[in-house]
Amino acid sequence: MKKIFLLVLFIPNFILAQSFVPNAPELDLKSYILIEPNTNTVIAEFNSNELIEPASMTKVMTGYVVADQIKNGLISLDDKVLVSEKAWKMEGSKMFIEAGKKVSILDLLKGIIIQSGNDASVAIAEYVGGTEDGFVDLMNSYAGALGMSDTYFANSTGLPDENHVTSARDLATLTAKFINNFPDEYALYKEESFTFNNIKQLNRNKLLWRDDTADGVKTGHTSTAGYCLIGSAKRANMRLITVIAGSDSDNERFLSTQRLLEYGFRFYATQKYFDANTEYTTAKVWGGRNDSVSLGVAEDISITLPRIDFKGIKIEYNIKNNVQAPIEKGQSIGTLEVISKGEVVLVSDLVALNAVEAKGFIGRLWSRFILWVMSLFGID
User: Fold this and answer.
1) What's the domain range around 143?
2) Which residues, including other chains, have CB under 8 Å from residue 155's CB and lie 6 or more apart?
3) C-alpha 217: how far from its chain's center?
4) What integer pLDDT is reported at residue 5 of this predicted model?
5) What is the pTM of this model?
6) pLDDT by residue (tens digit) across 175-187?
7) Which pLDDT score is estimated for 358?
8) Is 59 a catalytic residue?
9) Cys bridge to 158: 23, 56, 97, 343, which one at CB 3.0-4.6 A?
């Protein structure tokens, strides 16, 4: 009887363990967001559209603008920037550049990313934009192009300004684009220290020492913004990005970020489900030189879900009725749906993987006659 009792006791617990996804950790923050950027999946969030002061998290956009200018050949990492009096006199965190001297774009980028130098931010802003105000106009243009609808920048540094605002969601969007578009510049965020002018400074992002899988990105702090952090880590094929704002202490912002990352990696997974240009089904073609056309997806498709939700996934192919030639390669012929636990979690176009030429006039006429006869009997 004892063994039977134990089985009855343990089986429900086993089932619960396999089907339970806990809520995200409760955090004492003004706002936060946790996303998987490759599938654009929000795993957890709290007040993620609420306006916040970005503080030095602003410098991710400063770096983004510079990286894009480099990619487009407008400046180079070897360019030398003449440091102005304004840049030299900047308050707050510094790289310790000197007025009247020239510093390379690469060193200034390291000063912005690793040392959070306000002086470096202004120096590079003046070089790229002519003036800091000109550079800020560029920052806001980029923000608009990236869909950062809650964001307005007033400076290149993140120093307090009542008009200088963003949201956790917008910063997550920006960071995802930075990582994807500029991997070489993003790699600087993982460097643990930088020495300039014989002054060695450690990276202010302590997440790099607390989590071996972390590779960025940027701290921020003012008395009004509180302690803020954009963090990112990659484990296996899954990357996560966190943005937190309004933490009460330096240590707490890193703990909160770690808790969010652990939650995401523990209970969620990203799996690749479809390869581009691979046949997954076919469609009958009327009036074509081929009787059928191969269907697939135009781009690789991955899905991010709670780990337990990958069990029992169903895929449905919804193909248009009476597909007729001619068909162009890449033409949408229907949709595919990925269904988990009775809910559609992804919809994508099914496209023709090859072109199908139309038959001659008599062949097309015969196909249309057959379709007409079928329609009389309600046959699709």
Assistant:
1) 25-271
2) 58, 132, 136, 161, 164
3) 13
4) 29
5) 0.87
6) 999 999 999 999 9
7) 82
8) yes
9) 56
CB contact set of 173 (below 8 Å; sequence gap of 6+): 146, 147, 148
pLDDT at 376: 55
- pLDDT for position 288: 80
Both tokens of 58, joined, read 């602003």
> What's the pLDDT tens digit per position in 333-359?
999 999 998 999 999 999 999 998 886
* pLDDT at position 364: 53
Beta-carbon contacts of residue 200 (< 8 Å; ≥ 6 apart): 193, 194
The first and second tokens of residue 142, run together, are: 């980029």
> Of 155, 144, 180, which Cα lies nearest the Cα of 62?
155
Helix pair 132-145, 118-129: axis angle to 10 deg: 80
The one catalytic residue among 59, 110, 218, 359:
59
| Residue 180 shares a structural domain with residue 294 | no
Do residues 111 and 200 make contact, with C-beta atoms less than 8 angstroms apart? Answer: no
Of residues 31, 56, 247, 294, which has the active-site annotation? Answer: 56
The verdict on 340 and 198 lying in the same domain is no
Q: Is 56 a catalytic residue?
A: yes
Looking at residue 363, what is its pLDDT?
A: 53
Out of 271, 300, 332, a domain closes at: 271
Q: Which residue has better confidence, 253 or 368?
A: 253
Phi, psi of 44 (to 5 degrees): -155, 150
Alpha carbon distances (Å) from 358 to 196, 363, 375: 68, 8, 21
At 167, phi and psi to the nearest 5?
Answer: -140, 160
Point out the least confidently predicted range of 12-21, 32-41, 187-196, 285-294: 12-21
Residue type, 344: V
Q: Same structural domain for residues 170 and 221?
A: yes
Q: CB atoms < 10 A from the CB of 101, how many?
A: 12
Residue 140, domain member (yes or no): yes
Residue 250 and residue 227 in contact, taking contact as beta carbons nearer than 8 Å = yes
Record the tokens describing residue 116, joined without a space.
Answer: 């959070």
What is the arithmetic mean of pLDDT over 93-116?
A: 97
**CATH number where 132 lies:** 3.40.710.10
DSSP states of 295-350 as a string? EEBSS-EEEEEEGGGGTT-EEEEEEPSS-BS-B-TT-EEEEEEEEETTEEEEEEEE
Residues belonging to the chain: 380
Catalytic residue among 116, 121, 167, 367: 116
**Hey, is 133 helix, strand or coil?**
helix
- Give the C-alpha separation, 64 to 349, whole Å: 32
Mean pLDDT of the chain, nearest integer: 90
